[in-house]
Amino acid sequence: MLNMFKAKIHRATITEANLNYVGSITIDKELMERANIIAGERVQIVNNNNGNRLETYVIEGERNSGIICLNGAAARLVQPGDTCIIIAYCWLLEEEAKTYTPNIVFVDENNKPVEVSHEEIHGNIR
Question: What class of enzyme is it (predicted)?
């Protein structure tokens, strides 16, 4: 089994940081569906503003709300307005991994999806 890149929401804007919540990241349901990320799934969050990386699980947020909210202790690692990359991984057999294509959701400054891609090419900047 290989641990492979499954999905990504690219350059999402943090809308909230809620320290007094139990934990997790709340993500707009529309973004979750487009990326093929489900509630409870483990994700990695990479903060483009300060370089922090963390892992947590996903909670479904209101559809089309644009919400990207880090909850609990993770709230200390982000600020509203920061941009982040949310990455999900999956386990695949080697033969499956050779043909698997991830979902990459590109969003605008309001976390509205503008494009879904299935490949990353070195040198492409968004």
Answer: lyase
pTM above 0.90, yes or no: yes
Give the domain ranges of the chain.
Answer: 2-110
Confirm whether 24 is a catalytic residue: yes
Closest residue by Cα to residue 57 from 100, 86, 85: 86
Q: What is the pLDDT of residue 126?
A: 63
Beta bridge partners of 27: 60, 68
The catalytic residue among 57, 65, 89, 100 is: 57
Query: If 0-12 CB within 10 Å is exposed, 13-18 middle and 19+ buried, where does residue 3 land?
Result: exposed
Beta bridge mates, 91:
3
Q: Is there a catalytic annotation at residue 65?
A: no
